[in-house]
């Protein structure tokens, strides 16, 4: 019988905003190509691409077209681009897309789309509206169901647009911190930490993550999760959950310094295995 | 300390709903494998699957169950079973106790609660 208090670590796991399969070889070219995708209305620079076959991870450096993304390798296991016929996931660590589409009206300092409801889509004053056609970004100053007022007069009927908010597109995922038997690095991957539980030893939680740098040690994340386990157990009831406080990549030298400082990290999938 | 969520679920003849206890002691993690199901994974290996009658994009159901479970664990020890109205359910009146005691005319309770 378990007799420990119920305690959990709360992680911020990024949401998968796009899944797909590549349709051309991006290896060596540091690209992802998917002829069925509409990247311009889903993805912004600094998005993360996870090659689900080779497990390599990338930051998006540019949305080249509707079907092509330019990439920068992240993580210790560096990649050269997403090969052909490879499944991928995309995440948004800096922004959350609220709505995308094509404007069907023209008004001064307005984005008009009668086919959507910006209010129910969660658009708020202060969000950003990207005029994809004109390559201009404006700030939202007022919201009605079908019309956004913006601070730059750029939108015309027929323009493709993307409305987004600052902040990661993520959600809370809890992981038990009581009854932990072991926290260890996965032997075959440099960005996986496994937590094993008593009493059976067969219950394991797997944390897939990535650094924005290509330099880093898996043991650093293991240490951070161990610290979170002990810290959560030290909190008094009724603090059942303990928010993972984060870990800045402590490597002496980091790469990709222009991309999220090179020291950031992202939780991509936390699951029972 | 034993804690439970008490969740309305369709009864055996799929007409009314009755409240069923689901343990929130020993939870390892909570997931949402499909748009209509959330799973509670226990450290001992058991898995309870909650099935909704309507679809919600992930992680809506996962977060709803997480929130309910964590809030229930924060309550005092005498609150052993905390009522959880599943997302999308509209509470209805009790069925005539003379004919079907413990049943309710809820709209959109859970379809099933299953353990493996």
Structure description:
Chain A has 273 residues and is mainly β. Chain A folds into 3 domains: 15-95; 97-166, Beta Barrel (Elongation Factor Tu (Ef-tu), domain 3); 170-272, no CATH class. Helices cover 6% and strands 42% of the residues of chain A. Chain A has 1 helix and 20 strands. The longest helix of chain A has 17 residues, at 218-234. The mean pLDDT of chain A is 92. Chain B has helices at residues 60-74, 97-100, and strands at residues 4-10, 17-23, 27-31, 37-42, 47-51, 81-83, 103-104, 112-115. The longest helix of chain B is centred in the middle third of the chain and has 15 residues, at 60-74. The radius of gyration of chain B is 14 Å and the shape is globular. The mean pLDDT of chain B is 93. The chains are: A mainly beta (273), B alpha+beta (116). At the A-B interface, strand 15 and strand 20 of A face strand 3 and helix 1 of B.
Strand content of chain A: 35-45%
Radius of gyration of chain B: 14 Å
Number of contiguous helices of chain A = 1
Shape of chain B: globular
Spell out the helices and strands of chain B N to C.
EEEEEHEHEE
**What sort of overall outline of chain A do the alpha carbons produce when their principal axes are compared?**
globular
> How would you describe the oligomerization state of the chains in this entry?
heterodimer
For the CA atoms, what is the radius of gyration of chain A? 21 Å
In whole angstroms, the N-to-C terminal distance of chain A is: 22 Å
Q: Structural class of the helices, strands and pairings of chain A?
A: mainly beta
Domain count of chain B: the total is 1
Note the total helix count of chain B: 2
Mean pLDDT of chain A: 92
**Lateral strand order in the biggest sheet of chain A:** 8-14-11-12-13-10-9
| Helix percentage range of chain A | under 10%
Structure summary:
Chain A contains 1 helix and 20 strands. Chain A is mainly β.
Task: Using brief descriptors, characterize the structure shown.
heterodimer; A: mainly beta; Elongation Factor Tu (Ef-tu), domain 3; 3 domains; seven-stranded antiparallel beta sheet; 20 strands; 6% helix; 42% strand; B: 116 residues; alpha+beta; four-stranded mixed beta sheet; 8 strands; 34% strand; globular
